[in-house]
Amino acid sequence: MIKKISIGLSVFVVFTACIIYFLKCSSDTDVLSQSPVIIISADSLFMQYQTNEVEANQNYLNKVLQVNGVVSDITRSENGEHILVLKANREEMFGILCSIDTSVSNADGIKPGDRVAIKGICKGGGEMSDVILYNCITSK
Predict the structure, then answer these.
(1) Residue-wise over 30-42: b if at least 16 C-beta within 10 A, else e?
(2) CATH class of 31-139
(3) Rounded CA gap, 55 and 60, in Å?
(4) Distance of alpha carbon 51 from alpha carbon 45, whole angstroms
(5) What is the pLDDT of residue 29?
(6) Which of 1, 26, 87, 90 is in the most buried spot, having the most CB atoms within 10 Å?
(7) Residue 15 half-sphere exposure, CB side, CA atoms within 13 Å?
(8) Radius of gyration of the chain (CA)
């Protein structure tokens, strides 16, 4: 009985590991080598998500975008990656939240007030929230 349980558990662990690996590989897009689907301003992207989230998701969700804007804030996450926030339509609370892929891009020289172009994958947004880009790379 214990042997059957350990075999079943081993099969489950291997199966789960394969699924996680597949999802990780299929969701990690090499942003550096891809051209953006669209080049858009931070203001425009933010307003489209505020106006009609469903339509904005149809246009941008899981696609590589280049977003141009002005940095309002820059921080580091717990794992050391840079998080940039681009201003959006004079909105004080929300903007475009960009998680920088530190394996291919560096945000050390960027400071609030700098105009930047960020290329990353759009993970969506919504009414009264940030629009999120991940796997981002920067250029000034």
Answers:
(1) ebeeeebeeebbb
(2) mainly beta
(3) 9
(4) 10
(5) 61
(6) 87
(7) 6
(8) 19
pLDDT at 91: 67
Contact between 42 and 95 (Cβ < 8 Å): yes
**DSSP string across the chain:** -HHHHHHHHHHHHHHHHHHHHHHHHHH---GGGSPPSEEEEHHHHHHHHHH-HHHHHHHHTTSEEEEEEEEEEEEE-TTS-EEEEEEETTEEEEEEEEEE-TTT---TT--TT-EEEEEEEEEE--TTS-EEEEEEEEE-
Give the residue among 94, 119, 125, 109 at the shortest CA–CA distance from 29.
119
Which pLDDT tens digit goes with each residue over 82-108? Answer: 899 999 877 678 899 999 887 777 778
The set of residues, in sequence order, having a beta carbon less than 8 Å from that of 60 and lying 6+ positions away, is 37, 38, 45, 48, 122, 124
Q: pTM of the prediction?
A: 0.75
Q: What is the residue whose two structure tokens read 């301003």? A: 41
Q: What is the mean pLDDT of the chain?
A: 80
